[in-house]
């Protein structure tokens, strides 16, 4: 199976968006809610059907209005500031891009460990 090829221009646009996300997260001091948004967007993955996952669907009212997603509309609105500058980037890439930054610098070590533990258990990556 061939690996997907990502357009060089798209990768450049992702890097620009990453810089804007870093600035937004630093200026708004919003790393925890951004990390939570990325987690909840990815949390739609279904192991049995291998469907869902980080696809940007959390931006839909039906999903962000769900009880477990309470408060995430604020993070979605923050992302729209970056999305408007980089319209070619998918919402999935935008939301997961911020997760990487939050994991790198914006969240405490304890939160990082908790997040990674949840990901491994939820997605059963231990069998990968």
> What would you call the structural class?
mainly alpha
Taken together, the total number of domains comes to 1
Strand content: under 5%
Q: Overall pLDDT, averaged?
A: 79
CATH architecture identity: Orthogonal Bundle
Which geometry do the CA atoms define? flat
The major pleated sheet works out as:
none
The CATH first-level class comes to Mainly Alpha
Distance between the termini: 17 Å
**Cα-based radius of gyration, to the nearest Å:** 15 Å
Helix content, binned percent: 55-70%
Number of helices: 6
Low-confidence stretches: 123-128
Number of extended strands: 0
CATH topology: Peroxidase, domain 1
SSE topology string: HHHHHH
Keywords: Heme, Iron, Metal-binding, Oxidoreductase, Peroxidase
Organism: Cucurbita argyrosperma subsp. sororia
Family: Belongs to the peroxidase family.
GO molecular function, one term: peroxidase activity
């Amino acid at each position: 199976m061939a690996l997907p090829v990502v357009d060089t221009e798209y990768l450049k646009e992702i890097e620009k968006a990453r810089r804007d996300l870093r600035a937004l997260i630093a200026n708004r001091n919003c790393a925890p809610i951004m990390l939570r948004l990325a987690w909840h967007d990815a949390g739609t993955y279904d192991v049995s059907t291998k469907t869902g996952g980080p696809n940007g669907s959390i931006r839909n009212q039906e999903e962000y209005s769900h009880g477990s997603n309470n408060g995430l509309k604020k993070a979605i609105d923050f992302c729209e500031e970056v999305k408007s500058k980089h319209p070619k980037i998918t919402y999935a890439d935008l939301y997961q891009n911020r997760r990487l930054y939050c994991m790198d610098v914006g969240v405490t070590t304890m939160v990082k460990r908790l997040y990674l533990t949840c990901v491994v258990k939820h997605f059963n990556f231990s069998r990968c």
